[in-house]
Inverse folding.
């Protein structure tokens, strides 16, 4: 590994849904087969842990469950 100054780390993009959706294993998951999956914004769901993100996640969940 080559040392780099702080702030110049090599960024690798995270794999997105386009990487997994075509995979045959994805289609074999019970929830996928039953149509029980939804697309969510990865920023509040996976990358952000603050109170605003939590409210967004809860809003997504309650919106899907109808409560």
């Amino acid at each position: 590994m080559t040392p780099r100054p702080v702030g110049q780390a090599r960024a690798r993009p995270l794999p997105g849904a386009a990487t997994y959706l075509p995979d045959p294993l994805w289609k074999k998951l019970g929830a996928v087969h039953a149509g029980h999956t939804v697309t969510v914004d990865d920023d509040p769901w996976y990358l952000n842990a603050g109170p605003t993100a939590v409210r967004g996640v809860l809003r997504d969940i309650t919106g899907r469950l109808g409560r």
The longest helix spans residues 51-65. The helical segments are 17-20, 24-28, 30-33, 42-47, 51-65. The chain has a mean pLDDT of 78. The two ends are 50 Å apart (CA to CA).
